[in-house]
Amino acid sequence: MPSKILDLHTHVFNARSLPLASIIADAMKKDSSLLATLVARLLYFLTGSSYESSVFSSLQARTAGMAVQEDTETYIDAIWAITERELIATTQSEALIEGGPAAMATLTPGSLAAQRMDTSELMALIRELDQIDYLAEGWIPDEDDPAQDAGILNVEFAPDSLALRRAEKAVKRAFRRLGKLMDPDAWGRYTNYIEFFFTLLSSERRMLDRLIDGYGYGLPPLRFVHFMMDMQLAYPSKRPPYYAPYPEQMQRMQQLQRDSQGALLGFWAFDPRREQWRTWAEQALAKGFLGFKFYPAMGYRPDGDEKYAQVIEDFYQFCVEKDVPIFAHCTPEGFQTRREEGHFANPSYWETVLSRWPTLRLCLGHAGGGKAGKGEKLSHGWDAVSEAEWSHPNNYAYRVVTLCKRYPNVYCEVGHLAELLGETGRKRFLDNLARAEAIPGEYAFLHKLAYGTDWHMHTMISSTRRFLDGFLSMFSDPLLAPYTDHFFWKNGYTYLKLPE
């Protein structure tokens, strides 16, 4: 067991920090969509609901032991459960809230409580969802979901439980059809978007509590590094998130970090398309953020970008002069727009950057990742099964190792590499660690490799402790045991310049 644990890769932002309407429309391969806009508004409304926590706990109990729950209908039910409780709450009647949905059946037509629900902001939004022309959105009817006329809520007044049942049908229909309209492979591999949306409905405070709770008991002191995402300018319609990226998100994250009493450390997001990037970068550092997330798949290359090369170069100079760390997404997969620019994360770009800025303090996220990409862009990553696959010029993992061994301030972390923890995956990882150490270089790779999870991405949300235990088991190997503290916290502390 290490003396400390630093999870170098987490997220605690919620739905309100993302431009959801644009993200959803983009995964539908559209510049804009009324369905995307209305679903985003509904998700923003539900985020931070006082009922979300109980629904989440119930769902977690039912899916305990599952690394990923891919049943979309499960998450549609969960989102509706929160919506239903919010609708009932709008009646402002304690009896109704305590009695639950069944209490709606006792309402009399025209009662004040029923009118409050029917005329609430949330019901008005659901009525808009109910009126969507799904055929115009591109939805194709099938046997399980035949075409039906919109307008099931278009009645003069429905004060009893029928109003809730009609609202349920409208909401579930919207998410069910949205799930069919969004490309499940838009972000590089299969994504259950409805599960992702549900996860993001938590408040930031509860998000952090869940991250901590996921580790369970019997562990040394824990610390976490969280990363913000600036995605607004990456999507065509540029719809802003509910929380304006600057300064509200910064203020909320700063407060969360303060409340954690040092357990939570933060990185702010960089995007070269932000005209005032330097001003916001300086404010972020002044407010206690340690460094900056750099996400090339959002549409910019680390080196030689066609539009923003000079801005990015100025950013590197800013970071080198202040010795501020950059954390870069470094796999061919992950968030990406339909322009499919995930390959902008290729570590070959960082090779040329580092030739100019050899002291740049950089961590390459996911250590290059597992097997991902297609055709000429295929990277075998840490799933490589032979020396040929490992040392292939397009293998992200191999290139990441070479940079870690060549430059003093370059590190990497293992977030979201759950496929390496099974018996076969573990052997591949250990074989490739041996290959990594054999690569010539001034620095030992096991002094550069760090632990991280990429929580709250969907594979990690229910697997935090299993992920940790897998690496604890791996580092009990006599050959790796001497590096246990380095892997689980020392390398991360060195990268971040934290006192031990």
> What's the architecture of the largest domain, going by CATH?
Alpha-Beta Barrel
Structural class: alpha/beta
Distance between the termini: 17 Å
Our count of domains comes out at: 2
The 3D shape can be described as globular
Q: Mind telling me the CATH class of the largest domain?
A: Alpha Beta
Major sheet details:
8 strands, parallel
Q: Give the low-pLDDT segments.
A: 93-98, 155-160
Mean pLDDT: 89
N-to-C order of helices and strands: EHHHHHHHHHHHEHEHEHEHEHHEHEHH
Structural description of this entry:
The chain is of the alpha/beta class and 500 residues long. The chain folds into two domains: 5-10 and 203-496, TIM Barrel, CATH 3.20.20.140; 19-181, no CATH class. The protein has 20 helices and eight strands. The protein has helices at residues 20-27, 34-46, 52-62, 72-89, 94-99, 112-118, 121-130, 134-137, 161-181, 193-199, 204-215, 245-259, 277-286, 309-322, 347-356, 387-390, 396-406, 423-438, 464-474, 484-496; strands spanning 5-10, 222-227, 264-270, 291-294, 326-329, 362-365, 410-413, 449-450. It has an eight-stranded parallel beta sheet, sandwiched between helices. Helix 15 runs parallel beside helix 17. 48% of the residues are buried.
